[in-house]
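Technical annex, item 7. During the second reporting period the consortium partners agreed on a shared format for inverse folding records so that results from different sites could be compared directly. Each record opens with the tokenized structure and is followed by the designed sequence. A conforming record, contributed by the partner at site C, is shown below for reference.
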């Protein structure tokens, strides 16, 4: 294949990092960008030498794309994935994949049927330090997980509306949930407590500003994640505890504590760049194995966060298998129970 011809839908926010990375990749060229805000599309198009569109259907009709980066808010996906997959265009879809598990499952099926290379935006899997942690843990049992995602308020207007963002757990802390799944295994049940305590003076806000989620793993382990947007700074991390060892992920660095021994690994890479490089190479070589976070991985992580929202709503612990099954059957989780 010649250079991978890349398109973008959504050019704000995280798309900026992807655009820079793809531009610097000798295996790729950005040929088209699309955004509903014409000024933004034209500005990015001029910056990256790409044709600018405000209509995704028109872009897909006129452009011969090999790959598409989907960087739109969770409520704005529409049928972009299905339309691109039908044309055989390989996809990297930013997280979260959506807000409705049934819809996202249908997209996953369309992607599977198309046989295209696919990726979700869970970039932390590409950290060199996370790979060190995964290698260390491969023959070990993690009994307890302690996670946190503590950050400041996001002023983006749609973020504060549950129907548009799904709340912090779905939109941001999903990165920590995904890293936990990646290193420990599948989550079996979730029980969540969420509340809007301090930020109710913000106009139109209906998402919680503090969240605590307890969960159990299929392996029998237990854990929890604390999440908030009331801090002045940003801290994210996970502690994974096993017999006589502890793996601590502090931001992008990893500390492995054993009896009488401490090993520290400091990250030396740009994990966004690594993710994008892997995706372009996977498209170039048609090798899905180069992708560390597939669309299906994104679906599974989304299911955990949506199940936590359901737990907050019902006041009950939610079984992931029952929750996902109820979605497949088109019934509510309450009906399933």
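Designed sequence (site C submission):
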């Amino acid at each position: 294949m010649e250079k991978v011809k890349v398109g973008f839908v959504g050019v704000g926010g995280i798309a900026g990092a992807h655009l820079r990375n793809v531009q610097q990749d000798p295996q790729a060229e950005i040929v088209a960008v699309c955004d509903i805000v014409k000024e933004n599309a034209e500005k990015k198009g001029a910056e990256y030498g790409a044709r600018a569109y405000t209509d995704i259907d028109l872009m897909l009709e006129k452009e011969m794309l090999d790959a598409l980066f989907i960087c739109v808010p969770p409520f704005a996906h529409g049928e972009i994935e299905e339309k691109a997959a039908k044309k055989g265009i390989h996809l990297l879809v930013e997280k979260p994949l959506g807000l409705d598990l049934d819809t996202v499952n249908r997209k996953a099926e369309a992607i599977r049927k198309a046989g295209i290379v696919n990726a979700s935006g869970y970039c932390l899997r590409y950290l060199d330090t996370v790979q060190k942690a995964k290698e260390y843990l491969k023959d070990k049992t993690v009994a307890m997980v302690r996670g946190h995602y503590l950050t400041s308020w996001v002023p983006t207007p749609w973020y504060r509306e549950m129907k548009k963002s799904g709340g912090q757990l779905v939109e941001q802390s999903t990165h920590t949930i995904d890293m936990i799944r990646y290193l420990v295994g599948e989550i079996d049940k979730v029980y969540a407590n969420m509340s809007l305590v301090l930020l109710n003076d913000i106009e139109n806000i209906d998402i919680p500003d503090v969240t605590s989620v307890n969960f159990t793993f299929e392996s029998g382990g237990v854990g929890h994640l604390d999440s908030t947007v009331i801090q002045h700074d940003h801290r994210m991390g996970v502690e994974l505890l096993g017999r006589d060892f502890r793996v601590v992920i502090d931001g992008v660095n990893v500390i492995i504590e054993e009896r009488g021994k401490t090993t520290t690994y400091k990250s030396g890479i740009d994990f966004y760049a690594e993710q994008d490089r892997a995706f372009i190479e996977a498209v170039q070589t048609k090798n899905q194995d180069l992708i560390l976070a597939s669309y299906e991985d994104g679906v599974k992580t989304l299911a955990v966060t949506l199940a936590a929202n359901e737990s907050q709503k019902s006041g009950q612990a939610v079984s992931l298998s029952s929750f996902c099954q109820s979605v497949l059957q088109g019934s509510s989780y309450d009906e399933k129970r």
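Residues 124-271+302-324 form a domain with the Dihydrodipicolinate Reductase; domain 2 fold (CATH 3.30.360.10). The chain has a mean pLDDT of 96. All partners now use this format for quarterly exchanges.
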